[in-house]
Design a protein that fits this description.
The chain is built from 31 helices and 5 strands. The protein is mainly alpha-helical and 663 residues long. The longest helix is centred in the C-terminal third of the chain and has 21 residues, at 472-492. The protein is globular.
């Protein structure tokens, strides 16, 4: 059972004896002293010595709960779970008032995959001792593991009511909030846990995962480095190193992740997670052959490893008849596979079948994957429509005129926006080829700024209404932080003096008004594409929770309509220079469109912009394979291969006359 006291790695070895210890005669050691010595051996890891002493006590007192429980811990740590379960059960019956025996019994049952029985034991133990923190913590952790988040949260709240100073209780609440998809609420709880127990690496690790989920990956990396230092060479060192590598990759620092992982892999050549994460880091850098070699190593020992199979599918084109297709089909059809892995297999299968030309089966696989995703994260189109309407009301010419001097005058930022899969990665890759420009990838800083803006302003009004109370010091403070990040991106690629650095987070399209207030001299590149091609491409990608509307054709259509409406508003009111680039024009005239881009950015033309596929920079989006290839016009009009399947999307867009223009 993950996450705290009561697990096999955190068993309670010192449960009290229920049987009075007889007084020993001259030269005879009393049983309680023997028990104490046995527990010292247990704490030191000397299991044979501990077992010998526990058995000695049981010869004199066969129903002694402490000796039975101690012997159970010895059995569990020796890998004999069935024996441990019997011993913990006997200890619990011998001393029913001691909750530690119930915690240990539940933990052993849990590890034996007898979860319903374990949950019953945890529940009974907590009910019998409602003020016993370890018992309630064990129950809450079990409820969290099986996804009963409301019940887990109730137990965590009860724990905090018992003791507000408990680092374990704060950490537990933080983990529950992360699991519930509320990382913003998790961060304060986990910060409190690290404040109260700064020596606990697990708490720093959990804080890092929550910070990363909020988009604050700089703080997440710092927290993981702290966790790694505290873990030393302990059993969780590798786990935390992998978490750090994954966060570095998410923060667009694949080269650093690679440097961290190589020596670990050399020291742990059989570790599957190291191969998979290193393969991802190499794939991001365009080193597809090296990445495939690592995925193949994993598949040699684990032929059904879905992440490795997915890695192969994403490392190049898959031909008809490739055995990879059947391996992915088998993985995607197995209902016993955990849902997240099954979803990965189905998306990868859809990609492989599309490569092979089997559009009917490809769409079926993608439809199944998206249905599973949609059930887990439903999309509310009304909330997006509401954001558009409020933005149209708030961001007016009068507002921009009244706040002209509030922002930072830097011309370095370039914002590449548009619907995902509309060509944003291609445009950024071209821009990054220029010696005076850098592509920083998808940065989440404006999203975070928008989220926290009411708090920064001390306003009870949500965004965008809170913009009316915008303060110069808040704007300039964020602008300075953002420019530092752009500078770091430029330094990483050896262009510290780059005149332009791009942020290509597509949904910045919905916050261009805020961007204009922060950087009134920034430039905006708007990527557009045939909406049916864009919709098909959205449906084909696993965005891992980042784009909830991409899971059904209907919600894709609704999001496209909202996007078109907000862009129409920005064209009317936005005081920023905007350049619209149509994907279809781009792929048929790279040089001509490249010159338009260079001119818009105030840069001299450089031939490297049309050799974008040769640009050596990590790519962190679903386009990491495509942008390494020369442009092929076959990407235009791909939707016609799926014309029948895309009819629901076409119907929605036809109602508002959007199928005949780029969006």
């Amino acid at each position: 059972m993950p996450g705290g006291a009561g697990t096999l790695s955190h068993m309670v070895p010192g449960a009290r004896s229920a049987t009075p210890a007889p007084h020993g005669g001259a030269g005879v050691t009393p049983p309680r002293r023997i028990l104490a010595e046995a527990h010292r051996h247990l704490a030191d890891g000397d299991l044979p010595a501990a077992e010998r002493l526990f058995r000695h006590v049981l010869k004199e007192m066969p129903r002694d709960g402490a000796a039975l429980g101690g012997l159970g811990v010895v059995a569990a740590r020796s890998g004999h779970l069935d024996a441990a379960i019997r011993l913990f059960d006997q200890a619990r019956k011998a001393n029913p008032k001691d909750p530690d025996h119930g915690i240990n019994l539940g933990s052993a049952l849990w590890q034996r995959d007898r979860r319903p029985e374990a949950l019953e034991v945890f529940g009974a133990t907590a009910r019998a001792a409602p003020r016993h923190a370890r018992a309630r913590h064990a129950l809450a952790s079990a409820l969290l593991e099986i996804g009963k988040l409301d019940a887990a949260r109730a137990e965590a709240e009860a724990l905090l009511a018992l003791d507000q100073t408990s680092a374990d209780a704060h950490a537990l609440m933080g983990r529950i909030m992360v699991r519930a998809g509320r990382p913003q609420a998790a961060v304060p709880a986990l910060r409190e846990a690290t404040r109260r127990a700064p020596e606990r690496p697990a708490f720093w690790n959990d804080l890092a995962l929550a910070l990363s989920a909020t988009g604050d990956r700089i703080a997440a990396v710092d927290a993981l480095r702290q966790a790694l230092t505290l873990a030393g060479d302990g059993p969780r060192h590798l786990e935390m190193a992998l978490n750090l590598a994954g966060t570095l990759i998410a923060d667009q620092r694949a080269e650093e992740a690679e440097a961290l992982l190589h020596p670990l892999r050399d020291a742990n050549p059989e570790h599957v997670g190291l191969h998979l994460t290193l393969g991802d880091a190499l794939q991001r850098q365009g080193r597809f052959a090296d990445a495939r070699a690592l995925f193949d190593v994993v598949l040699d020992t684990e032929p059904g490893n879905i992440i490795a199979l997915r890695g192969l599918a994403k490392s190049g084109r898959v031909s008809a008849g490739d055995p990879l297709i059947e391996r992915l089909r088998t993985a995607g059809a197995d209902s016993n596979t955990p849902m997240d892995l099954r979803v990965e297999a189905l998306y990868a299968l859809g990609k492989a079948l599309d490569d092979a030309g089997d559009t009917e089966d490809a769409f079926a696989a993608l439809a199944e994957a998206n249905a599973l995703q949609a059930a887990a994260r439903p999309f509310d189109p009304a909330s997006l429509d509401d954001l558009v309407e409020q933005s149209r009301t708030v961001f007016t010419p009068d507002l921009f005129e009244g706040m002209t001097n509030m922002g930072d005058p830097s011309e370095r930022p370039v914002f590449i926006v548009g619907l995902p899969r509309s060509g944003t990665s291609l445009v950024e890759q071209m821009l990054a080829g220029h010696p005076a420009a850098v592509g920083a990838g998808e940065l989440g800083h404006f999203s975070e700024f928008q989220h926290h803006l009411p708090r920064h302003l001390g306003s009870a009004v949500a965004y965008p209404g809170c913009v009316y109370g915008l303060k110069r010091d808040v704007v300039r403070g964020f602008a300075g932080h953002y420019l530092v990040r752009l500078g770091e991106a430029a330094h990483r690629v050896g262009k510290p003096d780059a005149a332009r650095v791009s942020d290509k987070l597509p949904d910045n399209a919905f916050r261009l008004g805020l961007i204009a207030l922060v950087f009134p001299r920034a430039r905006v590149i708007v990527c557009r594409r045939d909406p049916l091609d864009t919709g098909l491409s959205l449906f084909q990608q696993n965005f891992a929770g980042g784009i909830p509307y991409a899971t059904t054709l209907e919600t894709i259509g609704q999001a496209m309509i909202a996007h078109d409406r907000i862009m129409a508003h920005w064209r009317t009111v936005l005081p920023l220079p905007m350049l619209e680039v149509d994907y279809e024009a781009l792929v048929t005239d790279i040089a001509g469109q490249g010159r338009r881009l260079a001119d818009f950015l105030g840069l001299d033309w450089d031939d490297a912009m049309q050799r974008f596929h040769e640009t050596e920079r990590p790519v962190y989006t679903a386009s990491k394979w495509q942008v390494r290839q020369p442009v092929f016009t076959s990407s235009v009009g791909r939707w016609r291969r799926y014309e029948k399947e895309l009819e629901p999307l076409k119907t929605i867009l036809d109602r508002v006359s959007l199928t005949q223009k780029a969006i």
